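A quick aside before the break. I want you to see a complete sequence-to-structure record at least once, exactly as it would be stored in a machine-readable document. Don't worry about memorizing anything.
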Amino acid sequence: MVGHAAQLVRAGASLLWVMTTTSDGNARLPAAPLADRLRNELRVPTCIDGGSALLPDLDAAIAAGRADLVIVDRLPSGTRPRRPTHADGLLRR
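That is the input. The structure line, written in tokens, reads:
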């Protein structure tokens, strides 16, 4: 797997989206270990699917450097969207 990813990086990939097709049933972010390995060995940013993980798990994956980006298709349960602030408008400029 690492060899195939290395070929993609040599070909110019600037981000690897890491996905797994199976899980051991207990892992909340099953792609995180592979993303972590690719990120560290190949020195390339990685992205993983957040799936049904909780917000603390998503934050932990980023904080621990296991992935550079976590994609979610919906807000994790128990969270609510924060209200936009003035600073958000400044960031969009």
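Two observations worth writing down. Residues 7 and 13 are 9 Å apart (CA to CA). The helical segments are 2-10, 32-42, 55-63, 86-91. We'll return to this after the break.
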